[in-house]
Design a protein that fits this description.
Elements lengths: L3 E6 L5 E9 L3 H9 L11 E11 L2 E10 L3 E14 H4 L1 E7 L7 E2 L2 E2 L13 E9 L4 E10 L8 H24 L5 H8 L1 H20 L22
Antiparallel strand pairs: 1-2, 2-10, 3-4, 4-5, 5-6, 6-9, 7-8, 9-10
Helix pairs in contact: 4-5
InterPro entries: START-like_dom_sf
Protein name: Start-2 domain protein
Organism: Cystoisospora suis
Length: 235
């Protein structure tokens, strides 16, 4: 009924977190939801707005995000995200997200977007590992993150509460968007960017088909999991 969630407060007061759970949807749907960054308000708690500043490659981008946290107020982050197809090597798709180094003027050959009135902080360092399981019908999502909150005078209990609430809410909301994928905003985005999403879906389906008939399968379903059932979190 619950997510497998653990966290630790580091010496620099950042919060490291590890989360693992099963989502009742195909890997293609989860990746589509994560890729459309300006629609993150459908699944990211406290989300206010987002803009895709640069599209470096087919699977990498620089994003400006604004979140409005309880007690902490509005904060802006600049986040670089890149996806890696590691299905053949590790049975998963990896997504890495983090802010460019502080005080640099350019990143990967392009200027860092100018600051606005909202306080800018470093984004969390995030690694998503997404495994297609159950013959491609479900997805195991593992998230490893380190949150640099930058709030020196805010009690750590509040910081850890916000971090845990964000992560738990994220899982529940992604699952909800998967359930509504055919009627929600993501279906329209998939149709609009058909070349990219067709390419992505073909890569996933090819791997799932290979695993179905392979003599040796990467045991993604045997990973120790605390099962996450979307229905258990309904209001």
């Amino acid at each position: 009924k619950y997510l497998d969630l653990a966290y630790r407060v580091e010496k620099d007061t950042s919060v490291s977190i590890k989360v693992r759970g099963k989502l009742p949807c195909r890997l293609f749907e989860v990746l589509s939801i994560l890729n459309e960054t300006d629609l993150a308000g459908t699944w990211a708690p406290f989300f206010k707005s987002a803009e895709r500043e640069y599209q470096y490659t087919k699977a990498s981008q620089l994003v400006r995000q604004v979140y409005d946290y309880p007690l902490l107020g509005s904060k802006e982050t600049i986040m670089f995200c890149a996806g890696i197809n590691a299905l053949e090597e590790a049975g998963c798709v990896m997504i890495f997200c983090r802010s460019p180094p502080e005080n640099v003027e350019t990143f990967l050959g392009l200027p860092i977007p100018e600051k606005r009135k909202i306080q800018r902080i470093q984004s969390a360092d995030l690694v998503f590992l997404l495994y297609p399981i159950s013959e491609g019908k479900q997805t195991t999502l593992e998230l490893y993150g380190n949150f640099h909150h930058g709030m020196r005078f805010v009690p750590m209990k509040i910081i850890t509460f916000v971090v845990k609430k964000v992560v738990r809410g994220m899982f529940v909301s992604i699952a909800r968007q998967c359930q509504q994928f055919e009627t929600g905003p993501y279906k329209e985005r998939v149709e609009k960017d058909k070349d990219f999403y067709t390419w992505m879906e073909e890569k996933i389906e090819e791997y799932v088909k290979q695993q179905k008939y392979a003599a040796f399968k990467i045991p993604a379903e045997s990973i120790s999991l605390a099962s996450f059932n979307y229905e258990d979190f309904q209001d």
